[in-house]
Design a protein that fits this description.
By secondary structure, the chain is α+β, with helices and mostly antiparallel strands. The chain has one domain: Jelly Rolls (Sandwich). Strands 1-21-18-23-16-15 form a six-stranded antiparallel sheet. The longest helix is centred in the N-terminal third of the chain and has 18 residues. It starts with a helix and ends with a strand.
Length: 379
């Protein structure tokens, strides 16, 4: 004899089967997928040592045809995110080497991109008609939707790293990539369009620096919306010598217990992050300085610009020195420590700006006695 409970169970099983056939899933059964106590983490802490990736670039320089130098790049693939070639769930990055005279053809895309010089001083990237030269420690921004090309016009090799928010754009279904750049033929008065490998330079050299590097002073006569993304910084290149000088001026201040002397690259017009969906920082760790431990939802990519040190991530120690690249996944407890002999400088890129706009940025600190304090909590 079938009991009422068994009959009800059979009916529920039939209901689940019939609803699943219609692509309707029972809410209670799916709750564990999204009702989480904290964010799931697949990305792992990892270091890509310069001594490992630079020899790979040298080998590629011998094998890849100069006309295809833009293919001579290696992506930093987080071992926890394979087979995807991502560094964090929202950021990907690559290292590239260009010999003198090599260039990448002009293109544009919806993901926001950045270029950071590691070696050599002959690099250039033309962004929306402004030719931005770059050397070690210089940051060049490529706001989404801007035509850009880049290359090496110096006498020696250049090496740089790119960090892009491809994974974020892919997840949101907003990725577009475009080639086939054309410009009106000179003197044609809007006539025949000519395909070009590199775009023409339409702004004075050091245009960004001339307009915006004054620190709190911006010209009222210049249009500040230079990219399709009107919220992006109109300053396309940030010089390391100026950033480093700012860090030096702040050296003796009572700085962040979690990040040392840290500065952010911002839009000089409104003080917002330099890009709406990416945050860029440079921080000075004074010799022997050990920071307090904290964690935040922003996954962060670092590059050691000066000195050496270590970063402890959820109990794992990452040792780094000049030109090493490493990643600290979001919502992992971490702390930095500079070596005892010299200062250390770290460049970093994260998705903090995007998370703040979405109301998803959270940060906690841990005091010496183990007490956890809220530093930022979604409103």
């Amino acid at each position: 004899m079938t009991t009422p409970a068994r009959a009800q169970g059979d009916e529920m099983a039939a209901l689940r089967e019939d609803s699943a056939a219609l692509h309707l899933l029972e809410f209670a059964a799916e709750r564990p997928v999204f009702e989480l106590r904290e964010p799931p983490r697949r990305a792992l802490p990892h270091v890509w040592a310069w001594d490992d990736y630079y020899p790979m670039l040298l080998r590629a320089a011998e094998l890849v045809d100069p006309d295809e130098a833009f293919r001579r790049s290696f992506m930093f693939a987080n071992p926890g995110l394979r087979p995807r070639p991502f560094m964090t769930p929202t950021l990907d990055g690559a290292c590239s080497l260009y010999n003198p005279g090599e260039t990448a053809p002009v293109h544009r895309h919806t993901p926001s991109a950045s270029r950071f010089g590691l070696e050599g001083d002959g690099g250039f990237s033309t962004v929306a008609g402004e030719k931005c030269t770059f050397g070690r420690g210089d940051l060049v921004l490529t706001p989404n939707g801007t035509w850009h090309d880049f290359g090496n016009e110096g006498d020696g090799r250049i090496v740089f790293i790119d960090v892009v928010n491809d994974p974020l754009c892919l997840a949101l279904g907003g990725t577009f990539y475009e080639v086939g750049y054309v410009e009106p033929e000179p003197g044609a008065n809007g006539g025949r369009a000519v395909a070009k490998r590199l775009q023409s330079v339409r702004a004075p050299l050091e245009h960004s620096r001339n307009l915006y590097a004054g620190g709190g002073v911006v010209p009222r006569f210049a249009p500040h919306e230079r990219a399709r993304d009107r919220d992006a910084s109109p300053m396309f290149v940030y010089r390391y010598e100026e950033t480093r000088a700012r860090l030096a001026a702040l050296r003796d201040y009572d700085a962040s217990p979690y990040d040392g002397v840290i500065v952010e690259y911002v839009n000089p017009v409104n003080g917002a992050p330099a890009m709406p969906s990416m945050s860029f920082h440079m921080q000075l760790l004074r010799r022997g300085e050990a920071t307090a431990t904290h964690r935040h939802t922003a996954g962060t990519v670092y590059c050691a610009v000066e000195g050496a040190g270590r970063t402890t991530v959820d109990g794992e120690t990452l040792r780094w020195r000049r030109n090493d690249v490493f990643v600290v996944p979001g919502w992992t407890w971490h702390a930095h420590c500079a070596g005892a002999d010299e200062d250390a400088v770290l460049y970093s890129v994260s998705d903090e700006a995007a998370l703040r706009k979405l109301g998803l940025y959270r940060e906690q600190g841990r005091r010496g006695d183990g007490e956890i304090v809220e530093l930022a909590w979604p409103a």
